[in-house]
């Protein structure tokens, strides 16, 4: 899991990138579909984009303030670990 | 045969239930109980749900004696409720639906209560009193909607009871409302409280402020007991609920009342409603705590009706919503 946080000089916004490797492409896809439907509760001040490339789920945040970024990332990590626990507990996905 | 698994976690209960064509196959549940004087907060409640949800899913499957392959649809609560707990439960429902290759179905929590009440009691077309910690509504069915005839204009009746319990430090185990009900049986003195029925609607926040102040004043000098306050609060709140239910019945020409929601398992409320029904020659339907209080089977049952009438929720549309009125849902499974 590679993480980097940086302040983007050009627009003064905070950025945070998270890359999450999964055992299979399908599990990464399931995680994306499970985690993406709910919009950020807060209106404005933060954007979050998710996509999957191969077995890796990538998430990129852009935020005005570190405080807002922390709340969003922290809640995302809680949700991510719940998805991973669910995948572990209920086995490998059915192949389609 | 259609088998639906339902996930509920919009407040402090987390439940997973399995329904097969009207039969409750399993319905395990856990409750997040806070210390006396404290309510449940969204973040802490979500944490509780995360820590037990997979155990509860496993219990539901084991008790029902079925395999994921036997399930036809995964239903979950879309709203209304607290955001963080709703998201937690929706995430697990989405993940399992994908793992098992089953369609997903987002259910309105209030519709879940109504459909579970109808299933258990076999009431045909009742006037529904839906009373819980988050909702207070009088509902009747007409033209493909459950229409709200009256509702609270501020806090829910259960919220009024819960917050009063916090003021005088009544235990939240198993629930504040249950403990108030037991204490009310020992009350002997009726303390007059504001009675705030406004047309078809009710208001509880002023009653709460009034009794909070009365509690501080009267308990300190021994003018009344906590039991007297519990008794007086219940009598006042429930009289208001019976009044608006009766008015809705008269309006609709209905001869059936169904009480659902967590406050609905209060036997004193059922007794008072029963007296009114008897006077009108109407029938009262109510359920016990296993189905009145939030549970997974109620979401499975509403999901079963929705699924059988051809509905599913696509994953991108499966977002949760804290506000979701009962009358927003088109009832595609009734005439």
From TrEMBL, chain A:
Keywords: Cytoplasm, Nucleus, tRNA processing. One of its GO terms (biological process) is tRNA threonylcarbamoyladenosine metabolic process. It is found in: Cytoplasm; Nucleus. One of its GO terms (cellular component) is EKC/KEOPS complex. Pfam families: Pcc1 (PF09341). Signal peptide: none annotated. It comes from the Eukaryota. PANTHER family: EKC/KEOPS COMPLEX SUBUNIT PCC1 FAMILY MEMBER, EKC_KEOPS COMPLEX SUBUNIT LAGE3. Component of the EKC/KEOPS complex composed of at least GON7, TP53RK, TPRKB, OSGEP and LAGE3; the whole complex dimerizes. Component of the EKC/KEOPS complex that is required for the formation of a threonylcarbamoyl group on adenosine at position 37 (t(6)A37) in tRNAs that read codons beginning with adenine. The complex is probably involved in the transfer of the threonylcarbamoyl moiety of threonylcarbamoyl-AMP (TC-AMP) to the N6 group of A37. LAGE3 functions as a dimerization module for the complex. This is L antigen family member 3. It comes from Triplophysa tibetana.
TrEMBL record, chain B:
Keywords: Acyltransferase, Cytoplasm, Metal-binding, Nucleus, Transferase, tRNA processing. Substrate binds at residues 130-134, 162, 177, 181, 266. Its cofactor is a divalent metal cation. A divalent metal cation binds at residues 109, 113, 130, 294. Its EC number is 2.3.1.234. It is found in: Cytoplasm; Nucleus. One of its GO terms (cellular component) is cytoplasm. The keyword Transferase applies. One of its GO terms (biological process) is tRNA threonylcarbamoyladenosine modification. Binds 1 divalent metal cation per subunit. PANTHER family: TRNA N6-ADENOSINE THREONYLCARBAMOYLTRANSFERASE (PTHR11735:SF14). This is N(6)-L-threonylcarbamoyladenine synthase.
């Amino acid at each position: 899991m590679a993480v980097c946080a940086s302040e983007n000089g050009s627009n003064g916004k905070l950025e945070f990138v998270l890359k999450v490797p999964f055992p299979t492409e399908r599990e990464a896809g399931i995680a994306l579909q499970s985690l993406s439907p709910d919009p950020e509760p807060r209106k404005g001040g933060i954007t979050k984009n998710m996509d999957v490339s191969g077995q890796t789920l990538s998430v990129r945040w852009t935020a005005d303030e570190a405080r807002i970024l922390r709340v969003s990332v922290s809640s995302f990590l809680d949700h991510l670990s719940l998805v991973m626990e669910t995948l572990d507990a209920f086995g490998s996905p059915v192949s389609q | 045969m259609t088998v639906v698994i339902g996930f509920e976690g919009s407040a402090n209960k987390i439940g997973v239930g399995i329904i097969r064509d009207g039969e409750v196959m399993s319905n395990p549940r856990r409750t997040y109980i806070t210390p006396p004087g404290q309510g449940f907060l969204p973040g802490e409640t979500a944490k509780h749900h995360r820590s037990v949800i997979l155990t509860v899913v496993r219990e539901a499957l084991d008790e029902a004696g079925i395999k994921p392959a036997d399930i036809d649809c995964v239903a979950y609560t879309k709203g209304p409720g607290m955001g963080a707990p709703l998201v937690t439960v929706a995430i697990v429902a989405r993940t399992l639906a994908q793992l098992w290759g089953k369609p997903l179905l987002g259910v309105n929590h209030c519709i879940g209560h109504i459909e579970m009440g109808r299933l258990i009691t076999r009431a045909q077309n009742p006037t529904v009193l839906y009373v819980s910690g988050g909702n207070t509504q009088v509902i009747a069915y007409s033209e493909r909607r459950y229409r709200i005839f009256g509702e609270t204009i501020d806090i829910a009746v259960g919220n009024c009871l819960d917050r009063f319990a916090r003021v005088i430090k009544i235990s939240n185990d198993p629930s504040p409302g249950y403990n108030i009900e037991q204490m009310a049986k020992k009350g002997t003195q009726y303390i007059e409280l504001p009675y705030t029925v406004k047309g078809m609607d009710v208001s509880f926040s002023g009653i709460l402020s009034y009794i909070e102040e009365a509690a501080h004043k009267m308990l300190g000098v021994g003018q009344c007991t906590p039991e007297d306050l519990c008794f007086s609060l219940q009598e006042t709140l429930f009289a208001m609920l019976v009044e608006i239910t009766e008015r809705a019945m008269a309006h609709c020409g209905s001869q059936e009342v169904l009480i659902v929601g967590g406050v609905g398992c209060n036997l004193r409320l059922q007794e008072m409603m029963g007296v009114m029904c008897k006077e009108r020659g109407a029938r009262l339907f109510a359920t016990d705590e296993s189905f009145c209080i939030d549970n997974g089977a109620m979401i499975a049952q509403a999901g079963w009706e929705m699924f059988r009438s051809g509905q599913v929720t696509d994953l991108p549309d499966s977002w949760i919503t804290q506000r979701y009125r009962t009358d927003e849902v088109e009832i595609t499974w009734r005439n």
